[in-house]
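Now for one specimen:
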Amino acid sequence: MFITVNGGEKTMNIAYDAKYDLLYIKFIEGKKEIINKNIDEDITIDLDENGKIVGIEILSASKHVDLDKLLPVEIRKAVTA
């Protein structure tokens, strides 16, 4: 399952693989140089060369995230008056 959440200039992609219980949240597209920082054995944060978070990988995602609340994502845009 792949979901794209578009908030104007910012786009976030959420990918969940139910077979492997793997969740990946990507905040920035197209970065080539990625530094992986392991938070614990199941969670890795991907950083760009400036230390900004590019993405988060969560193994055994159902142990760490309430997937029923995260997926499916409902997108609502703010209405401006």
Residues 28 and 62 are 24 Å apart (CA to CA).
